[in-house]
Design brief:
This protein is of the alpha/beta class. Helices cover 30% and strands 13% of the residues. It is built from 13 helices and twelve strands. The strands form two sheets. Strands 1, 5, 6, 7, 8, 9, 10, 11 and 12 form a nine-stranded mixed β-sheet that branches. β3 and β4 form a beta hairpin. α6 (142-149) runs antiparallel to α13 (391-397) and α10 (246-259) packs parallel to α11. The chain is globular, with a radius of gyration of 20 Å.
Length: 413
Amino acid sequence: MMDRRHLLKLMALTGSLVIPVGRQAWAAVGDDSAATRRKLVVVMLRGAVDGLNVVAPYGDANYARLRPTIGLARPGQDGGALDLDGYFGLHPALASLQPLWEQKKLAFIHASGSPDATRSHFDAQDYLESGTPGRKSTQDGWLNRLLTVLPGAASPTRAISIGPLMPRILAGRAPATNLAAGAAGTKQSILDRPQIGSAFDQMYQGSDKFASAYQDGRDAHKEVMTASMQDEMQAANGGAPLPNGFPNDAAHLAKLMRNDPKIQIAFVALGGWDTHAYQGNGKGQLANRLMPLGQGLATLAQGLGPMFDDTTIVVMSEFGRTARQNGNGGTDHGHGNVMWVLGGGVAGGKVYGDWQGLGEAQLHEGRDLPVTTDFRSVLAQVSERHLRLSDQQLAQVFPAMPAASPGLNFLRS
């Protein structure tokens, strides 16, 4: 177990524990590993990734009609999609994930998302993290509520987040840990400041300031939407870094999880997905974001080793993009999107969901992919089948849950 004097120093100004993610990474290791054996990693793509180019319905003739310059070419053509099932194709920049698809450890749920129709990044991200779409009064995040019902002893390192500050999804009464991303995770100077130890002492004495500290930080750093497209894209990221460094962070996260059996929940947020202009097709801006994302997910899966069999990774974004490309060679804020699920227990090699097509009559408000699978149905299945939550516990994590989506059986266990 790590020396307590060192642990006391690793405290963030926000009241959350900071653990470097580099070679000198520390974690409090305990012997209660049975309760935390089944792992969950959530990756949030802030800015609304274009799910119609992530998993492209090239078999629908409307796809090419709606996206004459940014749509992916058919499989086998230059820059074409990687065929998945004869109808859907994976973006070629995600080729690193094809082995997981072929091993049936990767699945997608298309036309999924929040039932709330907002096109505001901030509101939609808030609902995705609170787990209560349409309700702004929820104080805690669904991952934090999940921590309160999981069996086993509470621990600050049971749930970790990689990013600049404690995210909304982990705000609440359960303790959690925030890790700096990339090289910032190994900088030691901030740990020597007296106020860090003081902040840790306050929390250690039972003063739970996670929620208020996070809200203060969010208010301080929140960027206001402006007419500038670049400013909007930066604001949509919510402080999340671009995915360029994700492969390294994923490797560090895998090592940390292997070395510390107490870590059960991990959260990573990545920005750069608000592609209003010059989105590209098989190459270009979106491809440049997707490539390190795919590489990072593949690195995480490989780095976890045998632990990957007991891990489920969920990738989600606040909403999708318009079915029709805009005049700037990009896409605007939409509605339905695609969720990704990876793991040893995933019944993969399949695109799930109630797919209705891209005809004008099928589009939401005549412009967007509809939401036919509530994102909570996906998360609830992971919580129930993978993490073994009861119906009563599920109701605590996801109040006002929608009815289960028929045919949505993407987990084997």
